[in-house]
């Protein structure tokens, strides 16, 4: 499993979250997004359109994206690129 952590800079709108979810579906690996503190951590399947739509990811949030599967390295690199394109900074 591969993991990368980001600090969110700027809110994601509905269309951006849908685009991320749609692009994640091209990979065979499971891709998860985790956020929150140790006592209240939320984990969402990035390929789930509904899960992504319900994400309360706002400016200043720290998120962890993980990929597990046969193409996990490619999946994680691609997803990291999407978040960095949005202006998110590696944490």
Automatic annotation (TrEMBL):
PROSITE patterns documented for this protein: PTS_HPR_DOM
SUPFAM superfamilies (alphabetical): HPr-like
This protein's name: HPr family phosphocarrier protein
Pfam families linked to this entry: PTS-HPr
Phylogenetic placement of the source organism: Bacteria, Bacillati, Bacillota, Bacilli, Bacillales
Domain annotation HPr: ranges: 1-91
InterPro entries the record matches: HPr-like, HPr-like_sf
Organism: Saccharibacillus brassicae
């Amino acid at each position: 499993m591969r993991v990368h952590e980001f600090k969110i800079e700027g809110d994601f709108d509905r269309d951006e979250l849908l685009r991320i979810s749609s692009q994640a579906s091209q990979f065979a690996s499971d891709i998860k997004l985790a956020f929150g503190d140790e006592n209240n951590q939320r984990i969402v399947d990035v390929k789930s359109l509904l899960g992504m739509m319900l994400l309360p990811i706002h400016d200043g949030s720290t998120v962890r994206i993980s990929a597990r599967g046969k193409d996990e390295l490619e999946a994680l690199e691609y997803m990291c690129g999407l978040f960095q394109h949005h202006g998110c900074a590696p944490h």
